[in-house]
Amino acid sequence: MAQNIAKLDEIMGAAPVIPVIILDDVDAAIPLAKALVAGGLPALEVTLRTPNALKVVEKMASVDGAYVGTGTVRTKADIEKSIEAGAQFMVSPGAPPKLLEDALEFDVPLLPGISTATEAMAAAELGYQRLKLFPAEAVGGAKLLKSFGSPLPDLKFCPTGGVSVQNARDYLSLSNVICVGGSWVVPNDAIANGDFEHIKNLAATAARLRDA
Ligand code: 3PG
Q: Which family is this sequence assigned to (predicted)?
C-alpha cells in the first residue's frame, strides 16, 4: 500500500491551518474541538505528548465535522493506539524508514516530517507524496519549500514549527503547500481559562488566511 493521498488531500485541504494541540485536560477536549471547527478549522492534530492525549482524541472524534488526527507519532505502537482512539490521520516529526514502512500496513494515512531534499526523496521512494516540513522556520522556511518546488514537483507539504499568523501567508502562497500547522490558534492560557470564544476567533482568522 502507498500513502493514502486522496484522504490526506481531503484533510489537508479542508482549511489553511491544522491546529497543533497539546492537551491533557480531557474535559476541555470537546469545547476546544467545537470552537476550532466552528471557527473554520476542522482538521485537528492532537499530539501524543500528554498522558491523556488518546482520551482527548477519542472525545474530539465525536465532534461533528472534525477530522481528528494524532501528532508526535514515533512508533508502530503509537500508530496502533492512534487508530484505536479514532484518529483519521497521523503526523510525525520525522520520517524514519521503519515508521514509514509500518504505517503503510494501515488505512489511516501518516504525514511524515522531513527537513531536507534527501529525506523527502527517501519518503517519496516509499510511496509518500504528502509531507510535513519540520521544524519549518528553523530549517529554511518558505524559501526552502519554494526551492523544493521545481526538482520535487510531485511532493506537497504542510510546514509546521514556527509558523504563525504573521508568516503563514508566505507558505500558503506556494504551489507545493496545501496547508500549514501551528499551535498559535490554541494558546494555553485561553484553554486554561475556558476562553473558547477567543480560540474560535483565532481559528476564524486562521481560516481566512488564504483570502486576499
Ligand atoms: C509541534 O510539533 O509542536 C509543532 O511543530 C508546533 O509548532 P509551533 O508551536 O511552532 O506552532
A: Belongs to the KHG/KDPG aldolase family.
Residue by residue, pLDDT tens for the chain (212 residues) are 789 999 999 999 999 999 999 999 999 999 999 999 999 999 999 999 999 999 999 999 999 999 999 999 999 999 999 999 999 999 999 999 999 999 999 999 999 999 999 999 999 999 999 999 999 999 999 999 999 999 999 999 999 999 999 999 999 999 999 999 999 999 999 999 999 999 999 999 999 999 86
Domains by residue range for the chain, with CATH? 5-207 (3.20.20.70)
Q: How far is the CA of 183 from the centre of ligand 1 (A)?
A: 6
Omega prior to 135 cis, within 30 of 0: yes
Cβ neighbours, 10 Å, residue 129: 16
What's the pTM? 0.97
- Taking the centre of ligand 1 as the mean of its atom positions, its distance from the CA of residue 105, in whole angstroms, is 27
What is the CB < 6 Å shell around ligand 1?
20, 47, 71, 134-135, 160-163, 182-184
